[in-house]
Every structure is written in C-alpha cells, then in structure tokens.
Amino acid sequence: MKTILTGIRSNSVLTLGNYLGALLPMVRLANKHSKDSNINIFVPDLHSIISDVDGDLRSNIIRTIKYYLAAGLEINENVHIYRQSYVPAHSELCWILNCVATMGETSRMIQYKEKSKGQESCNVGIFDYPILMAADILLYDATYVPIGEDQFQHIELTRNLAMRFNHKFGEIFTVPAKTSDQIAFMGVNEGIRIRDLLNPEKKMSKSTKAENSKIMLDDEPAKAAKKIMSATTDSLAKVKFDMFNQPGISNLLQIESLVTGVPLQDVISAWAGETRYGDLKKKVAESVSGMLTVFQEKLAAISDEQVYELLEQGEKYANKVANVKLLEAQKAFHLR
Ligand code: ATP
Ligand code: MG
Hints:
Layout: E1 2-7, H1 16-33, E2 37-43, H2 45-48, H3 57-70, E3 79-83, H4 89-98, H5 103-107, H6 110-116, H7 124-138, H8 152-169, H9 179-186, H10 221-229, H11 247-260, H12 264-271, H13 277-301, H14 304-332
Parallel strand pairs: 1-2, 2-3
Adenosine-5'-triphosphate binds next to helix 1.
C-alpha cells in the first residue's frame, strides 16, 4: 500500500488562499485515495517553532485538524492524523540525516535563503528544517507528498538523502516520487494562486499586514463580504479573465469558481462582457460569505474530544511505523 503524506503549519489562522489552494485540494486527494493508500496527515509542530506563532500553538494545532474535518476529510482506518513532536523518531532520524547531508546542499535551499534574508542572525532550525522534513517523509516510506511549488526543492533533497543512504547501507528508505510525478499525482498543471485583494499582482498571504488584503477562515461572513466589495479591480470596465492585465477581476472569477464548485470556464462565460464590476463583486461576496457560514458551522460542531481521539489513534500508529524505520537507520550506523 502506498503512503501519501501531508502537513500544514499551524502558526496562525489560515486564509481563503490556504484553504482553496492547499487544504481543500489535499482533502479531495485524501478522500480519493484513502481506500487503497495510507493517508498520513501530520501537524508539523516542530517546524512551527522555527518562526513566531500567533496565539497558542496547542490550540492552533487542534484548530488546524478541525479545518481538515470541516473541509470534508473522510476518516477511515487508513487515515492517520498525528502531531510531529508526539513521534520522537522524527527528531532522532533528523539527527542521523544531518550526518548524511552536506552543508553545501542544505545551504542551497531557496527557502532557507529567503527566510534568513535580512535577519541579523537566524536560528539553526531555519537552516535545518528541510532535513527534518526529509525525516518526516522517509520514516513512513511515503511516495507522494502533495505540496506547493515552494517545497519542491526539499523533495529533491529528500530523494538525494534517501538514495545516498540506501547506496551506502542497503535499501532502507523508499525514495519519494520525483517532482514531475508528484505534480502529475496531484492532478494540477499549475498551482492555484489566490491573489491579495488590495494588491492583486501579489498572492494572498496570511503574513500580509493589511486586514482587507486577505480573507481569514474565521472572518465574520459579513466582514468577508465587505472585503470582497472593496477589492481592487481596474478601470477597463469589462469582465474578462486575464491574470496579467486584469488580476483583480480574474481573481474574483477564480474565487467564485473554487468556492461554488462551478468550473472556471463556465464562470468566465457567464460573466463575459459584463461591464458592472459591482455586480460581480456582489455575487462573489455572497458566495464567499455563504461558504464561510457553512464552514464555520461545521467547524463549531467538531469537538476537541473528537480531535484528541483521532490524535491518540494516529500517534499510536505513527510511533509504531516510525520506530521500525528509525531502528533500521540506527542499525545502519551501529547505534543499535
Ligand atoms: P506566509 O505569509 O506565512 O508565507 P502563506 O499564506 O503564504 O503564509 P504558507 O504557510 O506559506 O501560507 O503555505 C501554506 C499552504 O498554502 C502552501 O501549500 C501554499 O502553497 C498554500 N498557499 C499559500 N498562499 C496561497 C494562495 N494565495 N493561494 C493558493 N494557495 C496558497
Ligand atoms: Mg508562504
């Protein structure tokens, strides 16, 4: 049985962009494959502490798991939900892999360069987290790791470490699928990029300061509607899907399609040639506030107890699987 592994950091509330671009596609993929694959959904809490956390990490983690459930994740015996720090093998294997990885290849990681840029002194976690990520993946023999393009380089690093290790010590790790196969598996030709509502040339990001730039999953539906109504558009007075020349309008059409489930092409046709942007905004504002109302109702109906129960089962499973793999790696180095 193949293993599909995914995680999402819980440092703050997620945006509509995170939901439509990452969470929802992942939930759909999990539901599609959970009959014949292991679906490992883990909360990378050790990755969280490489940067600031908004609020309390423990409650953020519980909320993130509720997000998956509210987004429609179907639970069966193949779906395993766990917290990284509750499976100590992640940190243990990370150390072993630290002794396999080179400074050269780790220093080349773009995420490290970007995240450390402008910081007078950055913590070692920011440098080392791709190696922890490799451990997260290799402990479970995961083949597919659905992630955004910003993480593709880390998958290549994981593959290189696994191959180097196997070459030296024998076939211990499953080498995850290469990037092009990961993309094919996810069934996307290009990633969804929801744009910033005020500056639609940029993508919507949770770390953007301006409140009206982004819709948060815990926004009051009426407040979210207002944000859509005040979104930046253009002065061309023609509804057309053209991300380059009309990113604001195109973003609204894209959001409308993803939130309602109507194919983008049909949304584009329905609005083609319309000149009143206000009408489009009103429709999108209704769709988004309607979606948030339903999502927030579902979220409120999920109890903490339900989440803890899933974590208890998931962490029991994860420790069992991960410890077997860790022991093999320890034996390779004659630690055991
Ligand atoms: P930050 O500002 O802290 O970088 P972010 O909103 O960019 O936050 P990440 O934590 O970097 O979010 O990414 C979480 C997941 O959400 C990733 O899989 C990423 O590809 C996806 N994602 C982030 N922003 C968008 C967006 N605007 N549209 C679609 N997907 C997105
Ligand atoms: Mg980001």
